[in-house]
Amino acid sequence: MMMHPSYREMMEAVNADSEDDTTPIVSSRYSIVMATAKRARQIVDGDAPLIDDAEGRKPLSVAVDEIYQGKVKILPDEIPDDMEDKK
Question: Most buried in the list 8, 12, 17, 74, measured by CB within 10 Å?
């Protein structure tokens, strides 16, 4: 089954908001999946959807559209202090 938007399209949309063109906000499908799952869980737990056409749709579909449309921002992961030395 093909998901629309694709992982690549979602990554491009999220990274378009990056302040630094050389450092992407997300660099893997895993990051997109985790962010989408987290947002879907927030919707399930009672957060209001941020898009107009959410009525009757599954929380995961709503979360995908919210992220793709830029209604939800993904923050870049911070490197834990103990990992700084291993760079």
Answer: 74
